[in-house]
């Protein structure tokens, strides 16, 4: 029987609000067993860019990362944000270890090829991106790895990589060793049947039900890429995916995605 591992991804407004971030990390500290956290950068990196006279460029929610932008997001994600999260977890009694993909060659990416859009120094993750042996060793040492959204290409180049993609790729790679639950934590209580009704959380969705809900237009358009990625992770061996409110991860209201 494989041991359990819960992987949490946090980002968006929670990262930007220190009070909410502290509350989420306090909740996370109460989760028993092995766990791993992946965080995005929130809006703070964009504000820092503006403060330095660089206007952020986004296309379909993805950041265009030129050399100057890469310097700033690396400082913000791998530096300020990552170490703030680690220090707050230490205060809650969780022995956390802050990492980028370059540390220990944990996550190796490839620079996104230029097609219609040049995303600059943005990394995509191949199937063998994750150093699962290293991460497994850290987990067995009772450490909680905390990954930011910075990876590397193995040739000295850092790359900005989508945090949702990192979390999903880590979950799939570690599913060989562990029974993995992947948790996407944000501001809603789960997947809503009615976007205007916060109480309309769908408690469970199978792959077949998801296709039907998507065809009926029940799933909000903004959730579709996240759920497509989540069900791909389930097909790749992840045990289940949970969509939940970051401030209530230990409460029963949430959406559980499962293969069948």
Topology:
Layout: E1 4-10, H1 12-16, H2 18-29, E2 34-39, H3 44-51, E3 58-59, E4 62-63, H4 67-91, E5 96-99, E6 110-111, E7 123-124, H5 132-140, E8 144-147, E9 150-152, E10 158-160, H6 163-174, E11 179-186, E12 204-206, H7 207-215, H8 224-235, E13 240-245, E14 255-258
Distance between the termini: 21 Å
Structure summary, number of beta strands: 14
Over all CA atoms, what is the radius of gyration? 18 Å
What does the average pLDDT come to?
93
How would a crystallographer describe the biggest sheet?
A: 8 strands, mixed
Low-confidence stretches: none
Share of helical residues: 25-40%
Structural class of the secondary structure composition?
alpha/beta
Instruction: Give the number of helices.
Output: 8
Strand order, largest beta sheet:
5-8-2-1-11-13-14-12
Strand content: 15-25%
Shape, per Cα inertia axes: globular
What is the H-and-E element order?
Answer: EHHEHEEHEEEHEEEHEEHHEE
């Amino acid at each position: 029987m494989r041991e359990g591992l819960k992987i949490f991804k946090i980002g968006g407004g929670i990262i930007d609000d220190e009070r909410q971030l502290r509350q989420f990390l306090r909740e996370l500290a109460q989760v028993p067993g092995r766990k791993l956290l992946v965080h995005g950068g929130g809006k703070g990196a964009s504000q820092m860019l503006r403060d330095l006279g660089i206007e952020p460029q986004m296309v379909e929610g993805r950041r265009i990362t030129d050399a100057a932008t890469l310097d700033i997001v690396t400082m913000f994600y791998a530096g300020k944000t990552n170490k703030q999260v680690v220090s707050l977890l230490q205060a809650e009694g969780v022995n956390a270890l802050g990492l980028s993909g370059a540390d220990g060659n944990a996550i190796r990416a490839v620079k996104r090829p230029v097609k219609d859009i040049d995303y600059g120094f943005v990394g995509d993750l191949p199937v063998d991106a994750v150093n699962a042996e290293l991460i497994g060793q850290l987990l067995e040492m009772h450490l909680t790895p905390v990954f930011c959204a910075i990876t590397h290409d193995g040739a000295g180049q850092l790359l900005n990589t989508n945090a949702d993609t990192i979390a999903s790729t880590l979950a799939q790679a570690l599913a060989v060793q562990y029974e993995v639950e992947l948790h996407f934590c944000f501001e809603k209580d789960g997947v809503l049947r009615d976007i205007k009704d916060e109480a309309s959380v769908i408690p469970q969705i199978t792959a077949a039900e998801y296709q039907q809900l998507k065809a009926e237009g029940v799933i909000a358009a903004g959730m579709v890429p996240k759920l497509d990625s989540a069900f791909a992770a389930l097909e790749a061996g992840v045990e289940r995916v949970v969509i939940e409110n970051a401030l209530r991860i230990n409460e029963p209201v949430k959406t559980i995605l499962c293969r069948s």
